[in-house]
Design a protein that fits this description.
Blueprint (H helix, E strand, L loop, with lengths): L1 E5 L7 H10 L4 E7 L18 E5 L5 E5 L3 H12 L6 E8 L11 H11 L4 E7 L2 H4 E3 L5 E3 L4 H17 L7 E7 L8 E2 L7 E6 L7 H6 L12 E6 L8 H8 L3 E5 L12
Parallel strand pairs: 1-2, 1-5, 2-4, 5-6, 6-9, 10-13
Antiparallel strand pairs: 3-4, 7-8, 9-13, 11-12
């Protein structure tokens, strides 16, 4: 089996190495990913513009390729240029952050999987929900860092790919969207539906006192911010019990959502 792995966090992000390690005993793995972070770019494609493709070395010493483009670009380049044969499966991730609900169309991770499906290749998008209450830790010097524990995500991904090797994809399923919580209470995978949304978006300006620290963080000192605004997201708190959000935040177990990329609705009735 040949597997292409990409992501939106960038080729040197720890999650892509974790994804490779999860499945490298099951298949021949090729890694092609953006050269820098491309979070929340959706399915953006770079057409009629030059892209830089470079060989690079991952932390484990294995070879990978970086692309000066989007996650979707990386999948196209991997399938159509880097690999000698069309891959049997594309894996995107492991994303360092949650990707659930109908908001997945803004996700570079999930949309890279969409791009794979458009090329006739089944895909798995994989994300780790990092709980800020438990994942942020201090080192011996008192410096804060994020502890990305990919262990359960790697196990679930490995088992899912193994099942796909044995049984193939279910009829009518183009891709799986897998989300695993870092603060899990159960390792049992729950089959879920998409929540209506994951984020409430708020537009703020320099008069917003509650979010002033976020608004001013990237400003240079004494910058004029009178004409500046910022879109800030708040995580939705309530989810129906059959959804991906409920599995992650209430049941605190892995969520596996089967998806069909054909968005046609046939329920017009007598409209």
């Amino acid at each position: 089996m040949n597997i292409l792995i990409s992501n939106d966090d960038g080729v040197f992000a720890p999650g892509i190495l974790a994804a490779k390690q999860a499945v490298e005993d099951l298949a021949d793995v090729t890694v092609v990913a953006p050269d820098v972070n491309n979070s929340s770019v959706g399915r953006r494609l770079t057409l009629f513009k030059h892209l830089e493709l470079k060989k690079c070395t991952l932390e484990d010493g294995s070879e990978a390729y970086s692309v000066s483009g989007s996650p979707a670009d990386s999948v196209v380049v991997g399938v159509k240029y880097v690999m000698d044969e069309k891959p049997d499966l594309v894996i995107t991730g492991i994303n360092q952050g949650v990707n659930i609900s109908c908001d997945i169309t803004s996700s570079g991770t999930v949309c890279a999987a969409f791009e794979a499906v458009s090329l006739g290749i089944p895909a798995i998008a994989v994300s780790l929900f990092v709980d800020p209450k438990t994942a942020y830790k201090q080192d011996e010097n008192g410096e804060w860092y994020v502890d990305y524990d990919f262990s359960l995500t790697k196990k679930v991904l490995h088992d899912l790919v193994l099942k796909i090797i044995d049984d193939g994809f279910p009829e009518g399923v183009d891709l799986f969207n897998l989300n695993v919580p870092s603060n899990y209470e159960s390792e049992e995978v729950k089959i879920t539906t998409l929540s209506p949304k994951m984020l409430d978006k708020i537009v703020i300006d320099n008069t917003n006192e509650e979010k002033s620290e976020i608004f001013n963080y990237s400003l240079e000192e004494n910058s004029d911010s009178d004409d500046l605004i910022m879109i800030t997201p708040d995580l939705v708190k309530e989810y129906a019990d059959d959804t991906d959000g409920y599995a992650l935040f209430v049941d605190r177990c892995p969520s596996l959502t089967p998806l069909d990329v054909n968005m046609t609705s046939h329920k017009l009735n007598d409209w």
